[in-house]
Design a protein that fits this description.
There is one protein chain. It is built from three helices and 14 strands. The protein is mostly beta strands. It has one domain: outer membrane lipoprotein receptor (LolB), chain A. The strands form two sheets. A twelve-stranded mixed beta sheet has the order 9-10-11-12-13-1-2-3-4-5-6-14. It has a two-stranded antiparallel sheet with strand order 7-8.
Length: 264
């Protein structure tokens, strides 16, 4: 499958890498946004088998004192089998998951919608017009997107002049959560000149995808800057989903950035 667009955990991992990186590279980000990392939202197909899953996420790294630090969290993911994928970001409170942000990716209409139940606000836009805000991808207007791209232009130019080395290997098949999955391991070497480091680093990602669900059942990212992050699908349930789960609830204030662009 190669290196894919960064997903939810990718943005969090990249932010951590930026915070802990070394050196004074000319505005270059700590990791390429194209790193194939842990989106588990399925490929951009409009047809797949519907499902809902719990995703368990574990990050293991060394703290500033050299001692191991382990962080664990969960997300809820579901697909209607017709190109719409819902992801719930939140926290476990007393063993009960509480969603704080809901994200809908609609690959049929090519739109992204985000809403916050507590604030009763929603933001809509196109999938090709989004940027990360922490661990979550947010839709932005065309003007906002152009401004961000202009700001990131020096970093892109720097990286184009210092390309990384990528390799990929197939890992065969295995059963995960009761379904077959095909494995791929990708290795990226980022050379020492990039990001001001004094030595090259190697990033290894591994994914196991079920082709019927278009869902990664297991993914790993081993990055020396951020540690080892593992996402595992648990609690897989197959079947039709309530269409209302993929719609903004009534009574929410909705900002459609795509309409804002067309009005200009």
């Amino acid at each position: 499958m190669g290196w894919r667009t960064a997903g939810t955990m990718a943005a969090a991992a990249l932010a951590m890498a930026a915070a802990t990186g070394r050196g004074q590279a000319p505005t270059a980000p700590a990791a390429k946004p194209s790193v194939k990392m842990l989106s588990m939202t399925g490929a951009p197909d409009t047809k797949s088998a519907p499902y809902d899953v719990v995703v368990k996420i574990t990050t293991e790294r060394k703290g500033s004192d050299g001692k191991p630090v382990v962080q664990e969290r969960e997300e809820r993911r579901m697909s209607d089998g017709n190109g719409r994928v819902r992801t719930e970001y939140g926290q476990l409170q007393g063993g009960v998951f509480r969603a704080e942000v809901i994200q809908i990716k609609d690959y049929k209409s090519w739109t992204l919608t985000i809403w916050k139940p507590e604030e009763r606000t929603a933001r809509m836009g196109r999938l090709d017009g989004m940027f990360s805000e922490g661990p979550i991808m947010m839709p932005v207007t065309r003007a906002e997107g152009l401004a961000r791209r202009e700001k990131e232009a020096p970093a892109r130019a720097y990286r184009n002049a210092h390309p990384d080395s990528d390799t990929e290997e197939k890992l065969g098949s295995r059963m995960l959560a009761g379904v077959p999955a095909e494995g791929t391991r990708s290795t990226r070497v980022i050379h020492e000149e990039v990001d001001g480091r004094d030595r090259a680093i190697t990033i290894v990602s591994e994914s196991w995808m079920n082709s019927e669900l278009r869902l990664d059942m297991l993914q790993k990212l081993d990055d020396p800057r951020t540690g080892l992050t593992t996402e595992t699908v648990a609690g897989l349930h197959r079947g039709e989903q309530d269409p209302k789960l993929f719609e903004v609830p009534a009574g929410y204030a909705v900002v459609d950035v795509a309409k804002d662009d067309s009005a200009k």
